[in-house]
Structure formats: C-alpha cells, structure tokens
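Title: [Solved] Polar amino acid transport system substrate-binding protein 3D structure

Original question kept below for reference.
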Amino acid sequence: MPTASTTGGGDLLDRLKAAGVVRLGIAGEIPFGYIDRNGELTGEAPELARVIFKRLGVDRVQPVPTEFGSLIPGLNSQQFDVVAAGMYVNPERCEQVIFSNPDYQMLDSFIVRKGNPMGLHSYRDVVGKKARFATGTGYAEIAYAVEAGYKESDILIVPDQVAGLNAVEAGRVDVFAGTALTTREVVKKSNKAEVTEPFKPILDGKPHVDGGAFAFRPTETGLRDAFNVELGKLKESGELLRILRPFGFTEAEMTDLTAKELCGG
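Solution (posted by the thread starter after getting help):
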C-alpha cells in the first residue's frame, strides 16, 4: 500500500511537526480569521487551528493573509499549508481542495423592527406580506429571496449588515436578511431593531444549510483525516463551542454535517 510519502510528496503532518509551525491562509474576515488591532492572529478558525495542531504535535501557527479569492490558488501553490478562513464547503470548491468536516453551520436570520410587527420568519413571509426587503452586496440571501418569489430588482442591496440595520431602523425597509451570526451581533447595540430566530432558507426546493471548514490540498488526506479526528473529539466534549463562543457563535451554529454531505456526495 503506498504511503503518503510516495503519493503526496512527503507526509505533510510529519514535516509540520519537524518544523514546529503550520502556515494558515486567512482572508482578513471577522470573525473567521483576521489580524486584530494588536497585530495578533485571531478568529474562530485560527483559534481552533491552534488547539487542533497543538494536539497533533505542531506548536505554532503562522498567518499568511491573502484575498478570499486567492485562498484556494494559494493553498494549491503551497503558499500555506491549510486554509483557516471559515470557508463554506460547496461542490465547486470540493473539486479543487479537500475539506475537513465543518466546525460550524450557518443559518439565516432577519433584522426587523422591535416586536417584529409584520411577523416575518421566512422568505415566504417576506413575499406573502409584501415586505420591503434588503440584503448585502453579493450575499447568498439574494438567491434565497428570489427562490421564494421576491423580484430581484425590488431588493434593496446595501454594503453590509450595519447598513442593513440602519435601513431597518430608519424605516426604509421592513427586513434585512443575513447570516444568523452577523445579524445577531449587529443588533446588540440597537434599541429599535431585533433579530429573528435562525432558520434554514430554501434553495432548489430543499432546506439549505451552509457549513464552514478547513481546506487542504487534495494529496493531504492523511493530515485532513488526523485533523478530523481531533475536531470530532472537540465536538463531543463541548470544547468546540467554548473556543468559538467568543466570536459570536452559539449552540445554533454547532453541526454534525460532514464535508461529504456538503460536497454533494
């Protein structure tokens, strides 16, 4: 049986242990992976990587910041060893890299006025009650609203969740859609708006859940499998939630989804 050293150009985990450091590709996105005001690497993915790689015998993590769109090309050209950026697992990406199992899932939530006067809990509600709807530039939520029957040209597109909150507070729209995590965090300072319970949007006729994970080069199955074993232990012990909680994650973001399911296999 061929070993990783003959098939994958050397066993990366052994090389990382010998070097004592693993290079993490990050994209400067809060809360997933970023450099904080003190110049320190943090975020849910780097903090989790620190714990898992320490257990695998690699003491240090080193950030390699890049653009989000350059993470997969950078990984495959060996600029870093693993993508630690909370990257969503989808079939297109699964053709280019291999993923760990997701460390979090992401549902949607709405920002609405206090008391949710229109009773908006799903994209169907938004359409049925003729609510004025906003979401962010390039957000997946655009497709979810359109699938429910909302006319794309009627959607107010704003830069981000802060602008979305402002639009709801000012009464320009009735509802802003985003991820449960970002909407929950942004309404904390508001006395005019609140966030709805997280829910699964409908995509292609089925309830859809996104999951974020670590990406590895396709040859590095040994490292990915070892990473998954430690991740599984952290999920079982509840330590995973303790690591992610400071970044706004809750029980609602914990998941048993597998990379295989999200890759469509």
